[in-house]
Amino acid sequence: MTRKHFKVIACNIFMREICIAISESRHVVDPEFTEVGEHVQSDRLRTAIQARIDAAASGDHAYDAILLAYGLCGNAAVGLTARNTPLVIPRAHDCCTILLGSRQAFDRHFGDNPCQPFSSAGYMDRGDYYLRRDNDGAHIRYGDGYAELVAQYGKDNADYIWETMHPPALREIEQQAVFIDIPETKHLGHGDLFAKQAAADGKSCIRLTGDIRLLRGLLQGEWPEEDYLVVPPGYRTTGRYDAIRVIEREPADG
Question: Which residues contact 196 (CB under 8 A, 6 or more apart)?
Fold first, then answer.
């Protein structure tokens, strides 16, 4: 295979895994990362990704493709437009699928509870993305979801919406703290630290073995249609929202 020049734009929770995949790729890959905090507002993350796409497409390098290491991420990856360079993105609803390596693995572990909170080395590296607790110590909040509700609706309304979205039966499931452990970074001990935090919080820790297969394929230039969407110039991404295709493309001026 001819060596190509790729730009990869990724959330920085994948920084370790992306660097591993770059070191294994036969191609030349230039990485750029967005902050995990951009996920608080999907519109803001979409704007940030598109700005980086446009900069890469209009820069000094003629990239063969711009690779996006994101899932749909709350629609943040919907409406991204390819300019003069193709875009390639995994068919994944969120980073959990990418960390597990396939939609099948996601369905196996999270199919009955797709909102199950989880963590990984990248979340622990890049900020306090373990299980968050309110100042009064009475309620557990997870990730950026609660923070986004507060930002949009205020704390009182956010509390009501959160409790409606998390009934007692679901809160029982949320007493499980799930950690996705990537074999290539397991030796760093993030999983052990997570387990200690879970135990201190009175939660049972479930460890799942991750797989960077989707990231490896993305950076190797191996993009089977069942796993990746290729968006040619003049097209943009659009959501499919099913369990198989997940994301599609359409003409940008359509």
Answer: none
| Boundaries of domain holding 201 | 103-209
Q: Considering the domain boundaries, does residue 98 fall inside one?
A: no
Number of domains the chain contains: 2
60 burial level (CB within 10 Å; 0-12, 13-18, 19+): exposed
**Residue-level pLDDT, tens digit, the chain, 254 residues:** 689 999 999 999 999 999 999 999 999 999 999 988 676 678 999 999 999 999 999 988 899 999 999 999 888 999 999 999 999 999 999 899 999 999 999 999 888 777 677 899 998 888 665 543 333 333 334 445 666 677 778 888 877 776 776 666 555 666 788 999 999 999 999 999 999 988 888 888 999 999 999 999 999 999 999 999 999 999 999 998 888 999 999 999 86
The torsion region of residue 6 among left (phi > 0), alpha (psi -120 to 50) and beta comes to beta
Helices (H), 71-154: 95-100, 103-110, 121-125, 145-153
- Report the greatest alpha carbon distance in the chain: 59
Give residue 223's Cα distance to chain centre: 18
Is 58 a member of any domain? Answer: yes
Residue 123 counted as domain residue: yes
pTM equals 0.83
Q: Residue 26 in contact with residue 220, Cβ under 8 Å? A: yes
Pair 109, 193 in one domain: yes
Which residues 6+ apart lie within 8 Å of 129 measured at CB? Answer: 36, 119, 123, 143
